[in-house]
Amino acid sequence: MKKCRIINPLQSQHFQEKIVRSLMKKPTVRLAAIFGSVSAVSIPQIDSGIGVVSPDTEAPSLTLLPQDDGSACLDGSPYGVYFQKSATKSTKWTIFLQGGGWCYDEAGCLERSKGSLGSSTQFAETKGCGCMNLKDDASPDDLSPLDDECNCLYLPYGDGASFSGYLAEPLEMPGTEEKIYFRGIRNLYAGLAFAKENGFDDATDVVVTGDSAGGLSTFLHTDKIAAMTEAQVIGAPVVGYFLDHDDYNHTDANYTAQMKYIYSMQNLTFGSDGYSGLTPACQEAFGDDSPHYCFMSPHMHPYISTPYYVFNSRFDSWQLNSELLHKDTWDNDDEKEAVLQYGEDFLEQFEPGHVEDWSINGGFITTCVCHGCPWPNLFLEGLNSYQHYRNWVVGETGGKDSYQIDRRPPNGNGTLTINGCDAF
Asked: Which residues sit opposite 126 in a β-bridge?
C-alpha cells in the first residue's frame, strides 16, 4: 500500500493551546434560543438540495447589484443575488453561499470567468433557495423539522476563492487583452448590503449555510455575518471540511499547495474592514509561516466564535476524486486502502478540535460516499441528519453528544445502498 502523508493541523502543543484559548473566548450561547423554531480539475456544482423550499413559492429571479462598492465577478460583470422574501413576514433568514470548487491559477480563473461560476452574464435567471431554519413546532419525531418559510438569500459564486479575495486592480492576462477581477469578499458584502436593504435588520434567527466551496465559505464568513446583526446566528457548513492532505502520488500540486497559491494569487488578507476575507485570530496562530492555513477549514475552525453544525462525509467523493486520487475511480486494492485510510485521517483531523465535552458545535458525519449527499435519508442512531441538527439547535444535545459520527467503512460497510451514495 502506498502511504499518503497526512498533514495534521492539530499535532502541535502550540496549536492545541490556541484551540483552548480560542474556545474559552467563545460566548456561551443558549442554542435553544437561536431559532423561533492545475486548472483542469472537476468543479462540483452540487446545490445538493440542502434546506427546504416551499412548494408554493416560485424561484426568485436574479437581481444584479451596483458596482460602486467594488463588487464584480471574475470577468468584471456585476455581481448579483437571488432573494426569496418570506410570504408570511417571518423574521427567520437563511443565507446560502453557493459552492463550485476553486480556480487554482490565473489560467484557470480566466477559463472560469467565461462560465456560470465566474460571470453574471452566465448566471441562471432564477434559483431556488432552501431554508435551513427550524419549524417553530419541530418535534424530535419530525423527519422533516426544517421550515419552508423564511427569507432566503442565495449568494451565487462568482470569484473562485470562497468569497475571500480582493485585488483593487484587475489582473491583466499576458499575451491577451483579457482581464480577471478578484473581488470575492466585496461580493459577499454587496450581498449582505442587499439583505440589509430588504429587512435583514429585523432578523431574529439566521442560518448561514453553503455546500462544497460554499461550505468552506460558511466556515470562513459566518462570524462576519453574525457581526452585522443582533439576531441569533448559527452556521451550517455542508461538505465544506476539506482535509489538509497529501495526494496518492505525492505530487507537488496537492490540495494544500493549491490553496496556498490561491491565497497569494487572490490576495487574501486578514481583518474586518470589508476588504479582508480571513480572520485575524487565525493569523495570530499561523503568522507569516503558514497564513494560507487560515483558508482551510481544518486549521481555521477553532477561531470561529459563532456556533455551527457540520454536515460532511468521511469519504467525500469530491475529495477522494480530486484531492486524493485525481481520478473518478479507485481501481486496485492499494487505491481502495488509500480511500479507507482517508476516512481514518478525516477522524484524526476532525475529532480533536470538535468532539469534546466543551464543544458548542455539532455535526453529522456520514460514511456515504457522496458530495451532494442525500441528507434527509441518512440516519444514525435512529434519527436522520436533520433530526440530529434539530436536537442540537434546540439544546437537547451538547458537547460530545452533539456529534453523530459513522465510524464504519464506506457506505456503512455496504449497508447504505440508497440513491446518492456512490458505489465503493
From this structure: 61
